[in-house]
């Protein structure tokens, strides 16, 4: 008889907009269910339950603490402002709740280390909510990047994630408030750019970073646009740009000695049920420079579940293995989070030091 797949019961701390998307993902994932949500207002939590398709058995609490005390909650998703992550992720781990934490995961690597230590010492799984890592397209792209014949050796990466925020966002959103999300655009959208660069570099950390001049701050001193370059002793380089001020971009280009990988929707695919990427191998010019030869290829990858549901499914699988089989928490995900945070910290330090070159130190 096939072994039963445990259904992981989720609690959510807070009613942020992104929690609506992750609630849908928890519902779509075959090995998870929504058990509770907590807000500072019980009425707000109850309305969230009603509006977002929670099962009838789900509980609405007027505090975050109540979710952590609920014995019917196995894991928590935390979409709170970054300044609150350390407190609530540590408390969740101490209550033996597995932690799916919205990005950026912390304001600094020292804060993240406190979260990871709490998760490790309490035997709970940690994962950040970088959804695109779980799309099957990502695995297909990795196959290309690791193919020495088609891609070769990585030489450079460029990444951008920008969107033009409305006036109300730039004035009132938590992501532009120094007491809530002090990293601003660097934390909110730059996180994705840094993760994509590290992913293309097989998560080998750069030796140094250099924030480029032209960082834009709001009146409260929070970053709303910035760029940086990353450098490896091997000669690899990378650049990224993140912004709340420009039209939508989600681009990655990875250049190897033999091939190139390109995609234009790396954070959120253009469509929920499929995504594409472009590869070019041994490209050259046609006679008289009239075109490319060979022409780049587009690869389409279908998926039965959207990437956010696949993230929840994988997280729930890991939690289920811990609950049912006594497995140890998977160390891959906290390691990737920490490397991303280290580079983000270095970029922020470079900005704070007048765009100086800053070493990346583990």
Describe the 3D structure.
Helix content is 34%, strand content 25%. With 362 residues, it is an alpha/beta fold. Helix 2 (42-51) links the parallel strand 2 (32-38) and strand 3.
Task: List its salient traits.
362 residues, single chain, 10 helices, alpha/beta, ten-stranded mixed beta sheet, globular, six-stranded parallel beta sheet
Furnish the topology, listing elements before pairings.
Elements: E1 8-13, H1 17-28, E2 32-38, H2 42-51, E3 59-61, H3 64-69, E4 75-78, H4 85-94, E5 98-101, H5 109-121, E6 126-128, H6 136-145, E7 154-162, H7 167-172, H8 184-200, E8 208-211, E9 216-217, E10 223-231, E11 237-243, E12 249-256, E13 259-263, E14 274-281, E15 284-285, E16 292-293, E17 297-302, H9 307-325, H10 332-352, E18 357-359
Helix pairs in contact: 1-9, 4-5, 5-10, 8-10
Strand count, sense and closure of the main sheet? 10 strands, mixed
> Can you count the beta strands?
18
Number of helices: 10
Q: Give the uncertain stretches in residue-range form.
A: none
Summed over residues and divided by their number, the pLDDT gives a mean of: 97
- Structural class, by secondary structure, is alpha/beta
What fraction of the residues are assigned to beta strands by DSSP?
25-35%
Helical amount: 25-40%
Radius of gyration: 21 Å
N-to-C span: 47 Å
Order of helices and strands: EHEHEHEHEHEHEHHEEEEEEEEEEHHE
Shape: globular
Provide a brief overview of the structure.
The protein contains ten helices and 18 strands.
